[in-house]
Design goal:
Belongs to the FMO family. Its cofactor is FAD. One of its GO terms (molecular function) is flavin adenine dinucleotide binding. It is an enzyme of class 1 (oxidoreductase). The protein is an alpha/beta fold. 27% of the residues lie in helices and 20% in strands. The protein is built from 11 helices and 20 strands. Strands 3-2-1-7-20 form a 5-stranded parallel β-sheet, with helices on one face. Helix 1 runs parallel beside helix 10. The radius of gyration is 23 Å and the shape is globular. The termini are far apart.
């Protein structure tokens, strides 16, 4: 019998390990990548590309190499523990070469539509329509792995900032920020205290006249380094700590971590104390923010109430003259090529274990890496790919649709509680 054909959408971190896992299981993968290179999120480009996340030149990963590498291809010993985006790309290229993955990738090829074949209920097959150099082509695949990620479309909620239309300065989304040079000597407000917002505020504080960091809810700030200078995730994310978390009440774990985090710097004194507990939402990771705040180079402000022609008025009534605004307001995701079968509502999609649509007649469609963990995505994507490929081959089965829907509802309720 011929090997099952699998379409993989996207050649980023998840797409690369999807290729590797398909080959391990004797499947025949074809990866469609709309750009001209691998790497996805981690490939720096001076000019953002449509449909792909775009990073700034200085980005360093927030997870250590020990925790982010693929299980069968360790990162070289001479690479730093926390890698610059250029070193991450170097690692991905080594991985792709070692396992001979590039020959399975069709670069410069966009996926236009993924639809069920007429006999899907019996075969589970999909028709995938792609476009390259203006020409469309259709092909039949036995399964599809969607590896395009969730950092695709910039979320820019301009309507929630009254007066922005009359603001005489300039504004941009963090996706379009590349380096601090053009902000030299300017008064800048950065909106959002996620990883990108804090990173950009810290970097700008070395060039701008003044940086204001606007936050609606505050955030917990973790550091890359733990006790003794070891990587934080290497120290605290282990089987032992996971067992401990399962035995102790969540409130006890939160109390301990918040106390330890505030011992580094008191979040209330720095105007960053959030209402939520430390493990209830994704924390921010940055080593330099407290130093930039205590030296006055970054001033933390509440949410922006409105803009005038030349200033921002904050919810505490203060007003600051502003030359530029960087909106680090995150991303939204969509799958227009799958809109017949998968609906994204308020940036959420109902998937069993964040992977499988629960209502398909055959389990031949899976999403890889569509999750935001406290830690690295690469090992999770690898495990997801291993599971998905075994499901595709019929070596394992999914639960009944009713059980999957119940699990999705339960997971959603748990997340809502937080």
């Amino acid at each position: 019998m011929a090997a099952q054909r699998v379409a993989i959408i996207g050649a980023g971190a998840s797409g690369l390990c999807a290729l590797k896992c398909c080959l391990d299981e004797g499947l025949e993968p074809t990866c469609f990548e709309r750009s001209g290179d691998i790497g996805g999120l981690w490939r720096f480009e001076e000019h953002p590309e449509e449909g792909r996340a775009s990073i700034y030149r200085s980005v360093i990963i927030n997870t250590s190499k020990e925790m982010m590498c693929f299980s069968d291809f360790p990162i070289p010993e001479d690479f730093p523990n926390y890698m610059h985006n250029s070193k991450i790309m170097e690692y991905f290229r080594m991985y792709a070469r070692h396992f001979d993955l590039l020959r399975h990738i069709r670069f410069g090829t966009s996926v236009c539509c993924v639809s069920k074949r007429p006999d899907f209920a019996a075969t589970g097959q999909w028709e995938v329509v792609t476009e390259s150099e203006g020409k469309q082509e259709a092909a039949v695949f036995d399964a599809v792995l969607v590896c395009s990620g969730h950092h695709t479309d910039a979320h820019l909620p301009l309507s929630t900032f009254p007066g922005l239309e009359k603001f005489e300065g300039w504004y941009l989304h963090s996706r379009d920020y590349k380096s601090p040079q053009s902000f030299s000597g300017k008064q800048v407000v950065v909106v959002g205290t996620g990883n990108s917002g804090v990173d950009i505020a810290v970097e700008l504080s070395h060039a701008a006249k003044q940086v204001f960091l606007s936050t609606k809810r505050g955030t917990w700030v973790l550091h890359r380094l733990a006790d003794g200078g070891y990587p934080f995730d290497f120290t605290y994310i282990s089987r032992f700590t996971q067992v401990l978390r399962s035995l102790l009440p969540q409130s006890t774990i939160n109390f301990y971590l918040e106390r330890k985090t505030n011992a580094r710097f008191n979040h209330a004194l720095y105007s960053l104390q959030p209402q939520h507990q430390i493990l209830d939402q994704h924390p921010t990771i940055n080593d330099d923010l407290p130093n930039r705040i205590i030296s006055g180079r970054v001033i933390v402000k509440p949410n922006i109430q409105e803009f005038t022609e030349t200033s921002a008025i904050f919810e505490d009534g203060t007003r600051e003259d502003i030359d530029a605004v960087v909106f680090a307001t995150g991303y939204s995701f969509s799958f227009p090529f799958l809109e017949k079968y998968v609906k994204v509502v308020e940036n959420q999609i109902p998937l069993y274990k964040f992977m499988f649509p629960p209502d398909l007649e055959k389990p031949t469609l899976a999403f890889i890496g569509l999750i935001q963990p406290l830690g690295a995505i690469m090992p999770i994507s690898e495990l997801q790919c291993r599971w998905a490929t075994r499901i595709f081959k019929g070596l394992q089965d999914l639960p009944p649709s009713t059980a999957m829907l119940a699990d999705i509802t339960q997971t959603k309720e748990k997340m809502a509680e937080r």
